[in-house]
Amino acid sequence: MGRRSPLAYFGLGLMALLCGSAFVMPAVPKAAPEKTQLLTAGAGLMLATLPAPAYAGGMFDFGLTLPFVALSFLTMMFVLNALWYSPMTEEVDERNAKLLQTLSEATDMLAKADEMQVQYTADIKEAREKASKELADARKATEEAIATEARAADSKREAEARDFKAKLDAEFAEKVKGSESTIKERQQDFVKSSLAAVGL
């Protein structure tokens, strides 16, 4: 077995000093063997009648290890906070800020899109009303132009019909005049031939 360093002896001494007599076995006085046997039997009897002691290392074991556990816990907490939790919370905060900024921009864009949709709907409604009015005006103007052209065509046709009738009447009258002498001659010839046939 190797030699222990003076530092180990110093640590053991310090522990013994801090903990008091918990780790140091009290000195046993030299007694007679009978007395020792009697004390041993009494101690055994007393131990047998006592309730079972709580086991060390339970949930609430307040011993020398409690400060070391608390110190290691606090050290681990500070180290983890410095190395892990602090950067993670910064990243989460930056992410939340970016998400909030994106959400606000999206909300603004949706509001602008709604305004543009309302404006476009109003413009489309106005354009439809204007186109409908222009179509009605154009239809009315076209109907009036068609009616005017129809009236002009009717009056022209009636004038042509009157002129044609007048021309036919004039031709008929002229032919009647021209054929009167022929009719008279034929009438006279007919009368003569009829009288001749009868023998008069």
Automatic annotation (TrEMBL):
PANTHER family: ATP SYNTHASE SUBUNIT B', CHLOROPLASTIC (PTHR33445). It is a single-pass membrane protein. Belongs to the ATPase B chain family. Keywords: CF(0), Coiled coil, Hydrogen ion transport, Ion transport, Membrane, Transmembrane, Transmembrane helix, Transport. Residues 110-158 form a coiled coil. F(1)F(0) ATP synthase produces ATP from ADP in the presence of a proton or sodium gradient. F-type ATPases consist of two structural domains, F(1) containing the extramembraneous catalytic core and F(0) containing the membrane proton channel, linked together by a central stalk and a peripheral stalk. During catalysis, ATP synthesis in the catalytic domain of F(1) is coupled via a rotary mechanism of the central stalk subunits to proton translocation. The keyword Ion transport applies. The keyword Cell cycle does not apply. It comes from Durusdinium trenchii. Pfam families: ATP-synt_B. This is ATP synthase subunit b. Its main location: membrane. The chain crosses the membrane at residues 6-26, 62-85. It is found in: Membrane. It comes from the Eukaryota.
